[in-house]
Amino acid sequence: MSHADAPPMPQPTAEHKKLNEHVGNWEVDCTFYMDPSQPPMKTKAKETVKMFGNFFTTSHFECDMFGSPFQGSATLGYDPAIGKYVSTWIDSMSPSLFYLSGNFDKTGKTLSMTGEGPDCMGGGMANFRTSETHKDKDNRVFEMFMTPKGGKEVKLFTHVYKRKGK
């Protein structure tokens, strides 16, 4: 096949261009709700988000959790074949890959995603839900919730992001 016969390269959509809102260096105030009978655990983190080509972002997240270094990495993109944003997450304290999908609300400010993964509190599988609200170009709030099989939804954490540069 010659170059002239090759199909045209995909072009970024408006949804792909919206990913640029995540690009940058972020300071993060983290609040974890691990045990409802105890006060939440608070820690500081940092995250660096970069574009990966025109269709995805990659991020690197670092903090101290339970007295140990914690690292996480995410991808975020838009899949036009399914009409949804898609995200993956891996971290240094879990052997599992998380996959979530969803969309922005009508205002374009809140990205809600859902998926299934290992129940980090009691074993088995659970449903997960995230909500990320862009307050402005330099501030966003990310929350994650888990619903264990046959149980009630619980908030796992809230992360408050402040951009520290691109």
Question: In a few lines, what is going on in this structure?
Answer:
By secondary structure, the protein is mostly beta strands. The chain is 3% helix and 60% strand. It has a single domain, classed as Calycin beta-barrel core domain (Lipocalin, Beta Barrel), CATH 2.40.128.20.
Describe the structure.
The protein has 166 residues and is mainly beta. It has a single domain (13-163), classed as Lipocalin (Beta Barrel). It has one helix and ten strands. The chain has one helix at 14-18, and strands at 24-32, 41-52, 56-65, 68-79, 84-91, 98-104, 110-118, 125-136, 139-148, 154-163.
Topology:
Blueprint: H1 14-18, E1 24-32, E2 41-52, E3 56-65, E4 68-79, E5 84-91, E6 98-104, E7 110-118, E8 125-136, E9 139-148, E10 154-163
Antiparallel strand pairs: 1-2, 1-10, 2-3, 3-4, 4-5, 5-6, 6-7, 7-8, 8-9, 9-10
Strand pairing plus helix content: what structural class? mainly beta
CATH architecture: Beta Barrel
Distance between the termini: 40 Å
Relevant CATH superfamily: Calycin beta-barrel core domain
Number of helices: 1
Count of extended strands? 10
Biggest β-sheet: count, sense, barrel? Answer: 10 strands, antiparallel, barrel
Radius of gyration: 17 Å
Order of helices and strands: HEEEEEEEEEE
**How many separate domains?**
1
The shape, in one word, is globular
CATH class: Mainly Beta
How much is the average pLDDT?
A: 93
| Main β-sheet, spatial strand arrangement | 1-2-3-4-5-6-7-8-9-10
CATH topology: Lipocalin
Stretches with pLDDT under 50, minimum 5 residues: none
- Strand composition percent: over 45%
- Helix amount: under 10%
